[in-house]
Design goal:
By secondary structure, the chain is α+β, with helices and mostly antiparallel strands. It has one domain (about 5-180): 3-Layer(bba) Sandwich (Pyruvoyl-Dependent Histidine Decarboxylase, Chain B), CATH 3.50.20. The chain has helices spanning about 20-30, 55-60, 110-130, 140-150, and strands spanning about 5-15, 35-40, 45, 50, 65-75, 80-90, 100-105, 155-165, 170-180.
Length: about 180
């Protein structure tokens, strides 16, 4: 049985190369997580997990280590096509409860819209778990106010990498990740 992560940090990156896999590797390098063996996990933000800075998280990584993460990844070889990768987070006020992380792999969305979408996904999943009544047809800003006034959700946030497809048609990759860490 694996332990529950104690910390998480958020990072993002983009990469461009003639080879699809290499563009992904360059995006990982840009995010400074290429030296890890990354294991993608689903969307649960653990109880009592502390958000740390990217710098602090990167300083704790060891080359070759297995690290669990929630990652969004978008790729294109279409010149000028806008892609984005976003990870959203919503945390409950009660630190004994779990929160949600969401991944959004966007096409044609700018960075702001992709960020809001990922944040909305995470907050909506958490709101339904906490039993917060809301109208799913309301705009994100309206639902966000409902979530905040419920006093059950402490905050929501997101990290996004967005880029236009390379003008020469080379593979372009965007990634965003929430990387989990355990106490040493």
């Amino acid at each position: 049985m694996f332990p529950v992560p104690d910390n998480v940090f958020f990072t993002k990156g983009v990469g461009v190369h003639t080879e699809k896999l290499q563009s992904f590797e360059l995006a990982l390098r840009h995010a400074d997580i290429e030296q890890q063996n990354l294991v993608m996990v689903s969307s649960i933000f653990p109880p009592h997990c502390k958000i740390i800075t990217r710098k602090e998280g990167l300083n704790r990584l060891r080359a070759g280590a297995i690290n669990f993460c929630v990652m969004a990844r978008a790729e294109t070889s279409e010149p000028g096509r806008v892609i984005s990768a976003s990870v959203g987070l919503a945390r409950p006020v009660d630190k004994n409860r779990y929160g949600y992380l969401s991944e959004h792999h966007g096409y044609g969305m700018n960075s702001r819209n992709s960020s809001e979408y990922a944040e909305d996904l995470a907050a909506t999943m958490l709101a339904t778990t906490l039993g917060i009544p809301f109208n799913s047809d309301d705009a994100w800003n309206e639902r966000k106010q409902v979530y905040q006034t419920s006093k059950l959700i402490i905050d929501s946030r997101s990290v996004t990498a967005s880029i236009k497809g390379d003008p020469k048609g080379r593979w372009t990759c965007a990634i965003a990740a929430a990387v989990f860490l355990f106490k040493d």
